[in-house]
Amino acid sequence: MANFINVILPIPLERHFTYSISGEEALILRQGMRVAVPFGKSKIYTGLISKVHQTPPEVYEAKEIHQVLDDTPIVTQIQLRHWQWIADYYMCTLGEVVRSALPGAFLLESETLVLRNMEVTVDELELGDNEFLVFEALQHQSVLKVHEVAAIVDRKNVMPILHRLLEKNIIKLKEEVYEQYKPKLVRYVRLGNEFTSDLALEKLLETLKRAPKQSQVVLSLFQLQGNTMKPISIADLEKFSGSSSAIIKALVDKGILEEYFIRKDRVNYDNTEENLETKDLNEYQEKALEDISQAFEDKKVTLLKGVTSSGKTEVYVKLIDACIAKNKQVLYLLPEIALTTQLISRLQEYFGENIAVYHSKYTVQERVEAWNNVLHDKQKAQIVIGARSALFLPFQNLGLVIVDEEHESSFKQFDPAPRYHARDAAIVLGKFHDADVLLGSATPSIESYYNVQLGKYGYTEINRRFGNVLMPDMELVDIKEAQRKRKMKGHFSERLLEEVTQCLDTGEQIILFQNRRGYAPILECLTCGHTPQCPNCDVSLTYHQYRKQIRCHYCGHHAALPESCQACGSPDLDTKGFGTEQIEEEVRKLFPEAKVGRMDLDTTRGKHAYEKIITAFERQEMDILIGTQMLTKGLDFRHVSLVGVMNADALLNFPDYRAHERSFQLLTQVSGRAGRTKKRGKVIIQSYNPYHQILKQVTTSDYEAMFNEQLYEREQYRYPPTNRIIKITFKHKNFNILNEAADWFCGALKNNFGGTVLGPEYPPVARIRNQYLKHLLVKIGKKESLATTKNNIRRIEKSFNAISMYRSVRVIYNVDHI
Question: With b meaning 16 or more CB within 10 Å and e meaning fewer, what string describes 25-42?
């Protein structure tokens, strides 16, 4: 009887594909293993087996698989169930979830290889210039990839050249699957077997008398071996003996030293000290821990609301400790990679090498190692700390999920699909594993707090800062009034300057918060009013003084700073608005003695950039740190006594129903960085409208008032948490086709759906990367079924795609849009 497998391919197609396998393969292949399979005319993809069966496909003849890539499954059954849930809930395909979830090294893809045909004699005079360049390269290199050919001939489209060479039978093409992951092998050395006895070693040193450097290497190796039983790496031997790799190589060639390799993990924590005991909790933390344990017994997701610096991490540590004691795994999710730096060092003190880290700044190789450690439930992966992608790991016995700073919008993925919310997906993952789930925040999201009010979630709070440190003293400064009275220096009010000066005099640190990077968002001609626009997006270019560039923050387009207006030729150009770069420049002028740092997307592009800035600030190598919202997220700086918010209005006046909630969260969080030890911190918030309701609620830390006000407004206008929202975005390069398509889809929706459909409407930035955008908002009430609405939308999409003119319009779904 014939055997078949269903395969999930990492491409955005709804269905699985069936391939035929032999009887022997049917015995070894299981769900969750990878196979390389042919797809289309010449492509080879990595597929994930979802089912082994004996039912042939009805519509097409099943192709044979190309090769088996795994001996054992690399994906668990629970993972596949969870990924299917993500695909169904967030209206995307399982293939898109697989592409997002698996490390890139697991998703092998074919690359066309160009090989020289050795059986043919070539007359070089018959070849064109570009053809000769490719032929010459193949004489030095046996194999070339297509992109390497493009680099050699300096042309983007090299297919015509390759076709001509194929016709002349000079080259062959081959599709090959490449395994991207290579284990890290470290080179070690030991003395050759015949020199291990004392007598043999003595004779050896006698013969090496004329080669003192080689003799020194052998003696050093002997010393190192005497001190430790560990293997000795070539790098260590070089360092200890003060010699070079050439001398060691000469000894290896002579057979005196023996070289061998040991596979080593790329991510290691050198922690030779004993692990610390977990700290004793104060009475408020103890009470919170009791409440959480009680809620966990009732199988409830639990929300911990603790004011900034209340010691939530110590409560987490106790819960992690209890979970590890039961030999279960822990997932600790954070919104930003920046936070992992501080948290790892804190948790390492308690749990040593039990910690694995997983996020996008890690290399492909490092992520594969973390994946394998979690899959095999290794000791070093009992606690997994990571950003949102960590919830895709192959947990074997997950016991606890902690989502820290659960209110953060960074937990939502916007592009590409799946557009999932890591907090919500983590709750479902916890349910699949029967694990406890804890959400923590000083300013919980309105959805989570609403679920507490409904009794769906357990709840506890800590209202006191650790060590009874007072909450920071907050002050609102009216910059409109200060400008009128000419009491501003650049973007600094008198009050803020006064406080900064005082802090610098007493040797304390300062954080200045401005939620916009770059120097200025607009460069304007003073003569004609022209501002440089991005050629690909409907947005003005941001001026970056550091690079002397104007840049688009949407598509990355950049140009050199113009010396005169591109419209009228006038040299009078001025900037409007301000970003972190401009604040940095002003601070350096106002306080030339102070050491100033900046933390935004421009300064944290490298793998260890976050770590360097945070560590430097912790060690007080900087006096003033200027930054965007990266600074607001749970970082713990002991010596910060002042936080300055440069302009609160930019947060408040934003066209989004969450603007006020976000402003409250951001301002409360950034304020929480001040005065985390004995001395009371100070926060100065500059605003043109200091009487705004949200600013008053921030200064009085009145979360309840903000929640009740926002909930009332959202009930009135049918927004979450009382209603569900699906945002549908249409994308196309042709403005007219996009309009027609969006109107057709909207009309069909309004006819089929009883709820509220808003739009189609252009977003504030209506063109990005030369693609026009239009949005539709579908609001689903409490009584309406979310699943039925999604099915209706999918049915309309099928009819929509049947219209040939609309087929090229991209339709993007964002469920629970935030």
Answer: bbeebebbbbbbbbbeee
